[in-house]
Amino acid sequence: xxxxxxxxxxxxxxxxxxxxxxxxxxxxxxxxxxxxxxxxxxxxxxxxxxxxxxxxxxxxxxxxxxxxxxxxxxxxxxxxxxxxxxxxxxxxxxxxxxxxxxxxxxxxxxxxxxxxxxxxxxxxxxxxxxxxxxxxxxxxxxxxxxxxxxxxxxxxxxxxxxxxxxxxxxxxxxxxxxxxxxxxxxxxxxxxxxxxxxxxxxxxxxxxxxxxxxxxxxxxxxxxxxxxxxxxxxxxxxxxxxxxxxxxxxxxxxxxxxxx
Length: 260
Hints:
InterPro entries: ClpP/crotonase-like_dom_sf, Enoyl-CoA_hydra/iso
Protein name: Enoyl-CoA hydratase
Oligomer: single chain
Order of helices and strands: EEHEHEEHEEHHEHEHHHH
Family: Belongs to the enoyl-CoA hydratase/isomerase family.
Largest sheet: 6 strands, mixed
Pfam families: ECH_1
Distance between the termini: 26 Å
């Protein structure tokens, strides 16, 4: 199973379960993940949702090697439709689920991995966690859900995009992207502790508090920016298609070995 799902004491725990490939995201994992989010959102016995990754790393991003057979002809229209549904639409839906959510992040969280943790309301990271979006070297301006500017601030966002270097858990905490940094062996326990505390709060009040913060960000332009930058992202795919016939694979060899 690509996703594990468990409910205990009003907390739904969703676990990415492809540790052998550092929880890389294929189509099946993302579809199962969306179903798990929906299940938790619809369950009246769930007050808080926790997202975690099994194994050494939270997520190495999109599975560029495990996507199955490729069609003979790929168009930008095809890429746009697939990415719009599985990347942009899924991430926005998870962000707006009317229940508090917490991402527990360990090890590497690369590129597409950001699409999983950024929609969560809180992020708790282990001391060894590193967040990165190195896809500029692949000819793409950033991942499909452009939370960079909001999560890191404009200058730090440009730095990690321009250089591809990872942001440490400590740096992420300083920018406000991460709420808490804890020792690796305490990550699950500290996340459960936070979730348990939130689960004691009145559900309707939690829903309204989340709605207030998200709507404030949307009034400031978050939602419109996410949508418009997704189109900018697609121009990178169009450029890659014109050179190689397949999106983002022009510089794939340069990405190998980044998991370390």
